[in-house]
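Hi support team,

I've been running sequence recovery on a batch of backbones for a student project. Most finish fine, but this one hangs at about 90% for roughly twenty minutes before it completes. I'm not sure whether the input is malformed or the queue is just slow. I've pasted the structure tokens below so you can try to reproduce it. Let me know if you need the job ID as well.

Thanks,
M.K.
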């Protein structure tokens, strides 16, 4: 094929590369750890996967982090936290706000339920990490 007296193969290659980028990019989007478009995919039953991480600092220089998690839990389970990682936990723990029964803290950290029952804190020495549950 001729285009303006020259071979059109560079144009064809450019279209092929653009097409491949469109096909490959959505496949890798599910593995990204930042905000942006993600692909819908299945999570193995009984597990959770982090879909996105969010991080910022407020005016008091306190770092705030949040995650978007996709879970596929068995009946009677809901998304929760175990050993500082997303996991499926017994629904009764979340329903009754017995947060520390999920064992949400890492080994060596002490778990305490917040006074208003909106979450928990994990502490070691003078370091405290507070988690508030939002729905």
């Amino acid at each position: 094929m001729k285009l303006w007296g020259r071979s059109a193969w560079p144009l064809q290659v450019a279209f092929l590369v653009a097409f491949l980028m469109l096909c490959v990019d959505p496949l890798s989007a599910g593995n990204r750890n930042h905000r942006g478009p993600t692909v819908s995919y299945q999570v193995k039953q009984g597990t959770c996967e982090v879909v996105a991480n969010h991080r910022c600092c407020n005016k008091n220089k306190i770092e705030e982090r949040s995650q978007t998690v996709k879970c596929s839990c068995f009946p009677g389970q809901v998304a929760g936290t175990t050993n500082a990682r997303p996991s499926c936990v017994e629904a009764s723990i979340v329903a009754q706000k017995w947060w520390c029964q999920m064992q949400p803290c890492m080994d060596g950290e002490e778990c305490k339920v917040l006074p208003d029952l909106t979450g928990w804190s994990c502490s070691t020495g003078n370091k405290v990490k507070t988690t508030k549950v939002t729905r």
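--
Follow-up from support: It reproduced on our side and the slowdown came from queue contention, not your input. The two ends are 58 Å apart (CA to CA). No action needed from you.
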